[in-house]
Amino acid sequence: MNPASAKSCGPGRPKDLEKRAAILQAAKQLFPEHGFDGTSMDTIAALAGVSKLTVYSHFVDKERLFIEAVREKCAEQMPFELFDVDVSGPIREQLMAIARAFFALVTSEESISLH
Known about the structure:
This protein has helices at 17-34, 41-48, 52-58, 62-77, 91-106, 109-114, and strands at residues 6-7, 15-16. The chain is mainly alpha-helical.
């Protein structure tokens, strides 16, 4: 295992970042589809191609995995337009551009299913 694919988290073996990414990807897919209660750690592990022990090794419990999955999903969905505003133009146009981007974010199918 090379240093770029491992993360030291205290005592024990380093964590495999590719496995962590696979777990998060599975969680980001399953939680919006089935909800928190309808998604099991077994199902996440199976979709990620890892053992349930590996899931718990990276994320202490389901709540922490859920929080991290939501955090990553929100970061992925953040529209670039929120940060690409022409600040030299009229303030009304700047605010309208931000409002349009935010509205598109919160009304997207992904955002609604995640909520």
